[in-house]
Amino acid sequence: MTTIIVGAGASGLACAIRLKQNNPVFSVTILERMQTAGKKILATGNGRCNLSNTKAEGCTEVIDFFTSLGLVTREDEEGRIYPYSNQASSVLDILIAECNRLGVEIITDCTVTEIDKDLSVTTDKGIFVADNVVIATGGKAQKNLGSDGSGYKLLHSLGHSITPLLPALVQLTSSSKYPRALKGHRVKCNMKIQLDGITAKEDFGEVLFTDYGLSGIVTMNLSEAVSKNFRKEKPQKCHAVLDLIPDMSDTELNEYLNKFHSLKGILGTELSDIIEKQAEGDISKMAVFAKNWKLIITGTKGFDFAQITSGGAIPDEFADYQSRLVKGLFACGEVLDRQFDCGGYNLNFAWYSGIKTADKITSI
């Protein structure tokens, strides 16, 4: 059995290793466009590699997989799982070492230009033929790390449908002056994305103010709604609405302000000064602004800064990651239209889908 995997990222490496674990005599080759394998893995979790989450589907199987490779992990208070070393490089190193030990061939600097329905794979380094081909190219986010969107074109050429592609888990841009004034400040708040005054999505978490707008986990989780809005021919007016003091009700906040006449004791001096100036010193207005602080959103930072891609190959056209249209064709990871929030869920899906793809190939 010969399998070619297009893409040496998280899902591709996991798939290759699991295939050889399941049957050591399988011939497995990974074709990677970049000069080195797993470049994007090194950037995950701010270099720490948040490789899974205890609440993610398939987490146990993912951790068992890494345990079988000798990787020790640790869990934080929110269920995020990291390598014990807190270094993404240790995850990649152990994956590459296992590929080498098992005899997985990784061909780098190799661009796939075409895949025929007979599973012949044309590249700039020649033509490869296999019993099975796995598309594990990742999405379109952060092209400099390897995700250039080529997998979508390959799947589309083989008859698969691709939903609209948008940047997701990405920072938001704002024309409001306040984020720039508060650059570097972080707040834990409830945040809504409103389109023409109607809430499209909301979440609770940390917001980071920047010179271009907003970052932070909650911003990333809400960014898909912004991307979809600005893809429209006529985008709706978009605002981020922040409840800066979610732990207090309107009544409690008004009582506090009537007693202390300032928000400095809650929000700190810089943010409090901005709210108080906006409210022109009016206590009742201060409470309204603090609980419903509106910032104009003009878009996102785009694919170059996005962690993942929204959209992709329609999962219903696959059964256990096997194409319903082309015999012997599989797809796993971000190239599929499956997206999750921050916290290790997306990387977990990459590993898990790669593992399950290998199991499916082995069972055929």
Task: Please tell me about this protein's structure.
It contains 11 helices and 21 strands. It is an alpha+beta fold and 364 residues long. Helix 1 (10-22) runs parallel beside helix 3. The radius of gyration is 23 Å and the shape is elongated. The mean pLDDT is 97.
Overview in brief:
This protein is an alpha+beta fold and 364 residues long. Helices cover 32% and strands 26% of the residues. It has helices at 10-22, 59-68, 88-102, 150-157, 178-181, 217-231, 250-260, 264-267, 269-278, 283-291, 345-363; strands at residues 2-6, 27-31, 52-53, 73-75, 80-83, 105-107, 112-115, 120-123, 126-129, 132-135, 166-168, 172-174, 186-195, 198-209, 213-215, 238-243, 293-300, 308-310, 318-319, 322-323, 329-331.
Uncertain ranges: none
**What structural category arises from helix and sheet content?**
alpha+beta
The number of distinct helices, counting runs of at least 4 residues, comes to 11
> How much β-strand is present in the residues?
25-35%
How are the strands ordered across the major sheet? 12-15-14-13-16-17
Euclidean distance between termini CA atoms: 10 Å
Helix content: 25-40%
Radius of gyration: 23 Å
User: Biggest sheet: strands, sense, closure?
Assistant: 6 strands, antiparallel, barrel
The count of DSSP E runs of length 2 or more, i.e. the number of strands, is 21
Shape: elongated
